[in-house]
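Reviewers of the previous submission asked for a worked example of the structure-prediction workflow described in the proposal, so we include one complete record here. The input consisted solely of the amino acid sequence. No template or homolog information was supplied to the procedure at any stage.
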Amino acid sequence: MYVAEGHSPVVDGLSDAFGEDDSGFTETVTGLISSVARKFSAAKSESTLPKAPTSGPSPTQASDGLASSLLQNPKLMGIGAAALIVVAGVLYWLMSGPGELNNQQDDVVRTPSFAEKEVDFTAVPPTSGRVDVEALIDEARLARGAGQLFNPVGSNAIELFAAAMAADPDNSLIAAELDATIGQTLSMAESALLELRLDDTDAALMRVAAVDPHNVRLPFLTAQLAQMQLRSRLDEARIAIREDRFEDAGTSLKAARNLKLADTAEIDAVFVELNAARSAQQAGDVLEKAAARLDAGALLSPPNDNARYFYELVLSNDADNTAAHQGLGVIAAKLAFQARIAIDSGNLDEAEKLLADAYSVDATNNELAATAAALTTARDAIAEQKRRRAAAERDAAEQRRAAAGRQAEADKQAAANRQAAAALIATAEATTNGAESGAVQERRETQQDNPGIVSDSQDAGTEPTLANSAENIVPDPAPTQASDVDVPIAVSALNRTKYVAPKYPRSAQRRNLSGWVDIVFTVAIDGTVSSVEVRKSEPEDTFVNAATSAVEKWEFEPVVENGVVVEKRAGVRLMFALE
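From that input alone, the workflow returned the following structure tokens.
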């Protein structure tokens, strides 16, 4: 009556755990009893169960009358108590974990043998394969309850149900639970796809495809996942390209290729972007090298390491690169500037070479045309100079020929003049002494007749005598060597426009000295006298200063030969004598 009235602590605990729902409790107890029966089946097979009497009740009847028999038979009451203890242990295992279950099972094994012998839970002992399938099912249900439908690998619900199905292919219950798990997994894949959790979606679809490759929902979800994966990989690649992470971009594009999509146009387009970015980065590095060579002045050399080489290397990969075109323009301008310097220095051949190099670098540069015009002008000027020089040389040769003819004539005249001068000198020297006495007497008489002339005795007697001598003395009486270009001519051959008489030196007057000076001078193209040279004088230099001072002040009409005004050398002997 203690049990019937529901005052058992075990019954009260079960009521608290399951509430007022007796059906749930019954189902749970029934399942637990079946499980415990299977656990003890091996042990019970070793002992011999007592045979039921022929007149005894059937198992069904024993089950129906279990409550009444417990009240009437003390032995059965003990067995019922043992069964309740087993039920309580199973519930404790469910609430505390598998470790405590094992301990509880050990306790169950150590229960009195009469309880095991008197209760027959199953009529047929299960096989070892049946135990494996049930374990797999239990584990699969636990994994499903924990939300481990497709992960982790090897212990997820789908794989466990699939393993159970493989062990018991005809079990419709396993098939139904596997289908339900697959449907739930596909729903989770859809949610993950919407939330862009592509790795979770991929894992779920792969797990479903492994156990149910012909699932009707699988192709659509797989296609959607592929498109989302493609979009993700392409976005990753573009971001990596913008950040110059070209290896990462290549990895993302390779992953996109591995999706094995039929349409790869978008992938190809991003590959083009990657190659362009790589080329741009390489072009930037090469442009930096070109700029460094440009600053260093290495415009065209050394080979393979100059500014032109690097700029043209960039253009070989990118024909429209603006920086490279501008760099070549700068090189051409610098070469044109160097050509200008060479033109100003008269090095026209070097200028022409530099200009040719500039045209080969950038023929459209605006400075090249002006430099080429300057080079042409310089060459024309040099050609004109050469023509003038040739004409001058021809004129000079003609003048030399004419001068040679004149020189020959002058040599003849000079020889005659020297002979006449020599005779005159001899005559003058012979008559000098006699002439002095006669001259003194004559001067005295003249002074008596013309007292105004002798007011300045120092100059009066000198100037007439000097004037006379200037008109009658022939030039260069001393032997001279004729010049190849010009020889002195007599003063009488020139038209003198200004004459200045020499001053008789006072020292010579006081000493009553007489003498002469031979002078050679040049008549300039303007008629003035220059380059006065004393060839010879007697006595010594007494009369040199007076003679040269007078001659330097003389002026003549310009000398014209063959229609050209020329400088002319002339000679004269100035005689100094007191009368």
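The CA atoms of residues 133 and 164 lie 5 Å apart. We consider this example representative of the routine output the project will generate in years two and three.
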